[in-house]
Amino acid sequence: MADDPAFDPIEEAQRQWRAHGWDDAAPGMGVVTSIMRAQQLLLARADAVLGDHDLTFARFEVLTLLSFTREGRLPMGKLGARLQVHPASVTSAVDRLERQGFVRREPHPTDGRTTLAALTESGRAVAATAGARLNAEVFEALDLTDAEAEALVALLARLR
């Protein structure tokens, strides 16, 4: 059964949910389980690429966001807001990137309470190299049409 390529374990789980009287929860269980499994698979693909650059996806996102800004720097709080992550996660990512020489902390020029994360030249270079590989090996290799990808992003936006 599990070796049968036509067998879908999530469809079977939904069937079991319904068989056990959880009809109302079956569709949501299928969505959550599908997203979690897809996330595991996609993260493994991204990690395989980024590991060659000694990056995690979280640190890659910080580098890329900084590289997209005009001056290559942003306040730490704004990084967290734009990446939709907890401030502690931003601090941890910036700490590691700073140790790697990809980012440096700078005082804000007009707000003494704010610290900026600033991209270094080596950080800009690794972001570009890793980004090109992620584009080619992960983002462009999803086996979805543009319309399917856009529809999926729109659906997931409702959950986010």
Considering the chains and any ligands shown, give keywords for the structure.
single chain; 160 residues; Arc Repressor Mutant, subunit A; 7 helices; elongated; transcription regulation; WH_DNA-bd_sf
Quick check: average pLDDT? 93
CATH topological fold name of the largest domain: Arc Repressor Mutant, subunit A
Q: What is the CATH homology-level superfamily of the largest domain?
A: Winged helix-like DNA-binding domain superfamily/Winged helix DNA-binding domain
Number of strands: 3
Going across the major beta sheet, what is the strand order? 1-3-2
Largest sheet: 3 strands, antiparallel
- Report the total helices: 7
Distance between the termini: 34 Å
In the residues, how many domains can be counted?
A: 2
Order of SSEs: HHHEHHEEHH
Query: What is the 3D form?
Result: elongated
Q: What percent of residues are in strands? A: 5-15%
* Name of the CATH first level of the largest domain: Mainly Alpha
* Gross CATH architecture of the largest domain: Orthogonal Bundle
Structural classification? mainly alpha
Low-confidence parts: none
- Rg, rounded, reads 20 Å
Proportion of helical residues? 55-70%
GO molecular function, one term: DNA binding
Pfam families: MarR
InterPro entries: HTH_MarR-typ, MarR/SlyA-like, Tscrpt_reg_MarR-type_CS, WH-like_DNA-bd_sf, WH_DNA-bd_sf
GO biological process, one term: response to stress
